[in-house]
Amino acid sequence: MPEVMTDVRTSDTTLVQRVRERDAAAREELFQRYRGEAYRVAYRLLGHEDDALDAVQDAMLKAFSALDGFDGRSEFRTWLLRIVTNTALDGGRRRKRLARDGTSLDHSPVEPSISEDPAKDLHQQDLRRMLDRALGGLTSTLRGTFVLFAETGLSYKEIAEIQQVPIGTVMSRIHAAREKLQGAIDWSQIKGG
Question: Which region holds residue 47: left if phi is over 0, alpha if psi is between -120 and 50, else beta?
Fold first, then answer.
């Protein structure tokens, strides 16, 4: 009888242990598993592709160099996204300081598109810019909480762990962010497209 191959995903716990034992393939697998999600979080927090890529790189380096300190009380994903969030927010504060000091850091964020319909692509880009502007109007605390909720699908409990706040605080931040975003978005442009 032929051997049946199953696509079994190695657990994060196993990969973390293997990385601690200096297994480069395990480190690469963890990186590949979470780099997209880490990028989406950083991009939504920072609004700029280059800054987000830098934040993800810095966060991944921090995470892998501090892996011995990861105690497993939370999921690896939760722990990593906390590092990504903190690194991105630190980068955003640094960028604001540089901008105040007169250094230009103007970027024009446009996410790549893979659609076959150019009109739809333009509309999607307009919507994305509108959302980015609205997110940029939120405080870093509200933006961080909302991005973790909307971009990653993390539970309130996981977000509370990442931000080290009570679940009720997470819920109120998400509610406040939704309210502010509702007021900041021009709904006529969305419905018209």
Answer: left
Taking alpha carbons only, the member of 68, 58, 8, 63 closest to residue 30 is: 63
Asked whether the beta carbons of 86 and 63 are under 8 A apart, the reply is no
- What is the pTM (predicted TM-score) of this model? 0.69
Listed residue (56, 47, 190) closest to 106, CA to CA: 47
For the segment 88-106, the average pLDDT, to the nearest whole number, is 65
> Would you state the torsion angle of the CA atoms of residues 44, 49, 54, 60, taken in this order, to the nearest 10 degrees?
50
Q: Rounded to the nearest 10 degrees, what angle do helices 24-46 and 76-100 cross at?
A: 50
- Given a cut of 80, whether residue 59 has pLDDT beyond it is yes
Cβ partners under 8 Å of residue 171, min gap 6: 156
Amino acid present at 15: L
Spatial contact of 50 and 6, defined as CB atoms under 8 Å apart: no
The residue-averaged pLDDT of 84-96 equals 83
d(CA 26, CA 13): 11
DSSP secondary structure of 9-52: PPPHHHHHHHHHTT-HHHHHHHHHHHHHHHHHHHHHHH--HHHH
